[in-house]
Write a structure and sequence with these properties.
Layout (H helix, E strand, L loop, with lengths): L2 H24 L3 H16 L3 H42 L5 H18 L6
Amino acid sequence: MARRSRTYIWQFTIGLGFLSGLWTAIGIDPQDVILNLIGTTTGEIFPDPMLRQVFIILPVILLLISVWGAYKRGKTLGLASVLIAYAAGLSILVALWTSMLLLFAAIITGYLATGRRLL
């Protein structure tokens, strides 16, 4: 597998798509937990309401940057691979084999999104 394809699949298909779906299925969002902890800590040190608003809007900004990066590297097919991987992560607790099949489809789609061919 070429380096560009490997990087895209690990960063966006598995990282952004599958793991986000997995965390949603479990019911925990580690990004929110970490940002709330940092926001609370900095809010106690610097009690500025503007700083608290930055930590409220930061998850949305990070999500938009991640989606934009996935689109920039993989175009529409790349976003489709992220959405398929998200569905795979979301369904892993309900149907393991279906989830693995969806993840495999997402990896193949991510591979094709980087301009590669199967054969």
